[in-house]
Amino acid sequence: MSEPLILSSQSGAVRLLTLNRPAALNSFTSAMHAQLLAALDDAAGDAAVRCVLLTGAGRGFCAGQDLADPMVAPDLAPGASPKDLGQVITRFYKPLVLRLRSMPVPVLAAVNGVAAGAGANLALNCDLVLAARSASFIQAFSKIGLMPDTGGTWLLPRLVGRGRALGLALLADKLGAEEAERIGLFWKCVDDAALAGDALALAQRLAALPVKALVATRQAIDDAQLLSLEDALDLEARVQRTLGQAQDYQEGVAAFAARRAPQFTDR
User: Fold this and answer.
1) pLDDT score of 246 more than 90
2) What is the C-alpha separation between 94 and 188, in angstroms, rounded?
3) Does residue 153 contact residue 139 with C-beta atoms inside 8 Å?
4) Which pLDDT score is estimated for 16?
């Protein structure tokens, strides 16, 4: 049997998922899509998982779509119909992005090496991104006559503003990790040798926090981008009402009063 395209392992309450096509810089095929979505679904359904850590095997995180994959490779035969790339997005990339954004636990991306095209936006759809200093992010779409997908048109202007978003999307220049951190594209970059250890430590820290509240925070921040201030305040009231009735709130207050470390259990 061939090696899995997604490697899965458990470290305490952290589920580590590794994109595993290193010879192709972990670029996406339809088979890898299916395995990654199944792995995320499995993590979402496992009560023992309180954080997901996503990374790539070998020297890169993910180079985006494998352009040799039959679902996207143009058929150069005379009279052949062009591939429907919209259907590819609808069938593969949309479910993947929506799964990431609806995970019941925090998702952390550890970006090693290149994150290009759909691979860059895969990482940016995670809740937090930790990147090696040698890593790079490239919105490579315009190089082949396409536009950003995998949520890129929605994400980029919200992360770095319209001007920078257009610059990244139109010019498709390589953006080093330190500059990407400086402009607010993601959370933090670290020394290459420290990436794996720091990412696992951060994932374990997230797993020990009240993950129900963390996920509610993610959803409220995303939803509030489309709301007026008044509606955002109403949203905060609704979500806070729910969180205030949960066990983690009671535990957090009790631990604060007793000056001890809290033990959060809600998910």
Assistant:
1) yes
2) 26
3) no
4) 98
Q: How far apart are CA 188 and CA 202, in angstroms?
A: 11
User: Residue 78: what pLDDT?
Assistant: 84
| Those residues with Cβ within 8 angstroms of residue 232's Cβ, 6 or more apart along the chain or in another chain | 224
Position 19 pLDDT exceeds 80: yes
Residue 253 structure tokens: 């207050």
Pull the structure tokens for residue 132.
Answer: 């090696």
Per the CB < 8 A criterion, the answer to whether 143 and 174 are in contact is no
Region 249-264 average pLDDT: 95
- CA–CA dist 114, 175 (Å, integer): 10
On whether the 211-258 domain is CATH 3.10.180.10, my answer is no
pLDDT of residue 64: 96
10 Å CB burial of residue 98 (0-12, 13-18, 19+) is exposed
Kindly tell me if the per-residue pLDDT of 200 is higher than 80: yes
pLDDT for residue 1 is more than 70: no
177 by DSSP, 3-state: which?
A: helix
pLDDT tens by residue, 214-237: 999 999 999 999 899 999 999 999
Question: Is the Cβ–Cβ distance between 246 and 26 less than 8 Å?
Answer: no
Rounded (5°) CA angle 112-115-117:
170
Relative orientation angle of helices 94-101 and 30-45, to the nearest 10 degrees: 20
Look at domain 6-208 and name its CATH class: alpha beta
Spans of all domains in the chain: 6-208, 211-258
Q: Give the up-direction half-sphere exposure of residue 224: CA atoms within 13 A in the CB hemisphere.
A: 16
